[in-house]
Design goal:
Its EC number is 2.6.1.9. With about 375 residues, the chain is an alpha/beta fold. Helix content is about 40%, strand content about 15%. The structure holds pyridoxal-5'-phosphate.
């Protein structure tokens, strides 16, 4: 780099005014013994699955001189079969993580002069991706217990007429799932698209519904999912959605050609073949989650009901001190959500034992709720 090159900073570049002063999104990627901060699945692919993935990549490698299937038909068919609900390839779309799916939704249905609405606290990537596409953001607040009051939601939608409404269920960072009634009321009131982000769907407790069942009656409803959490495939970057086929047609106007690599498609399709095995681990994580919630409540903490693979708990006068104290014990969790609360991802039994020991140590000397 030249002398002048080193003196140039981002501020010297003709960057968009609305990007000036922003910092890149992301949780700290610290090297710690127990990482419970990004809602990853703690169970790596089994040897059998890892072998199958390697085989799929090897088979793909011989054809990498060619562009991939632009429409990812095999993968979409597999995802449709996995989701059920009468879905087929035309009603399913896939991209590099559900974050890219969300970006494509914003590109097709948002943009300058348009607005997206969300109910906070929720997934912070929703307003960020919204902003990146020049779409306005209309934040609304969740109510008691981190739920969404349908009357308040309908009133906000009627008043603001957003082009896109985000509903996260189960919600991140609170773990809260929405009753179908709330989604139906929102879908009926919304003039534009309604996106239900179901990144944690597989972790729902028994009897908690999915918005997939509403798709046949709601052509402007989109349900997004990911292979990052339940399928333990965060490193592969695979997200997808289910919606009316016309929605998929719209997304194809904004997707980059060949956006999903042949390697990614092969890896994702192969992992789908192991759905039963992977969902077995999810069941274990759900049980671990439920006992974590019970343990935290026993200790007198406030704990949000969780249908996800993480738990939001509090309330701490100084949550940063608790977060740092846990880190001193080698346990990294996430300082996110409403003031006073912390979020911990559900890990292996050993990791959760380390978390319980660390939290007991950190809260023993005061700083308790
Ligand atoms: C983790 C998460 C995602 C997943 O993003 P990917 O890009 O698929 O890894 C999407 N939505 C929410 C609410 C999440 O917490």
């Amino acid at each position: 780099m030249t002398e002048t090159g080193t003196e140039i900073s981002i501020d010297d570049l003709p960057i968009r005014d609305d990007l000036r002063g922003r910092s890149p999104y992301g949780a700290p990627q610290l090297d710690v013994p127990v990482a419970l901060n990004t809602n990853e699945n703690p169970y790596p692919p089994s040897e059998r699955l890892a072998g199958a993935l390697a085989g799929a990549v090897a088979a793909t490698a011989a054809g990498l001189n060619r562009y991939p299937d632009r429409d990812a038909v095999r993968l979409r068919a597999g995802l449709a079969a996995y989701l059920g609900h009468g879905l087929d390839t035309r009603g399913v779309w896939a991209a590099n993580g559900s974050n890219e799916v969300l970006l494509q939704i914003l590109q097709a249905f948002g943009g300058p002069g348009r607005t997206a609405m969300g109910f906070e606290p929720s997934y912070s990537m929703h307003p960020i991706i919204t902003g990146v596409t020049g779409t306005g953001w209309s934040p609304q607040q969740r109510g008691p217990g981190f739920g969404i009051d349908p009357d308040a939601a309908v009133a906000a939608i009627t008043r603001e007429q957003p082009d896109i409404v985000f509903l996260t269920s189960p919600n991140n960072p609170t773990g809260t799932a929405l009753p179908l009634e709330v989604i139906e009321r929102v879908a009926a009131a919304a003039p534009g698209m309604v996106v239900v982000d179901e990144a944690y769907a597989e972790f729902r407790r028994e009897g908690t519904p999915s918005a997939l069942s509403l798709l046949p009656d709601h052509p402007r409803l989109i349900v997004t999912r990911t292979m990052s959490k339940a399928f333990a495939l965060a490193g592969a970057r695979v997200g997808y959605l289910a919606a009316h086929p016309a929605v998929v047609d719209a997304l194809q106007l904004v997707r980059l050609p060949y956006h999903l690599s042949a390697v990614t498609q092969a890896v994702a399709a192969t992992a789908l073949d192991f759905a039963d095995e992977l969902l077995g681990a999810v069941k274990q994580l759900r049980e671990e989650r439920d006992s974590l919630v019970a343990w935290l409540r026993d200790r007198g903490h406030a704990v949000a009901d969780s249908d996800a693979n993480f738990v939001l708990f509090g309330e701490f006068a100084d949550r940063s001190a608790v977060w740092r104290g846990l880190l001193d014990h080698g346990v990294l969790i996430r300082e996110v959500g409403p003031p006073g609360w912390l979020r911990v991802t559900v890990g292996t039994p050993d990791e959760m034992a380390a978390f319980r020991t660390a939290l007991t140590g950190v809260t023993a000397g005061g700083g308790q709720p």
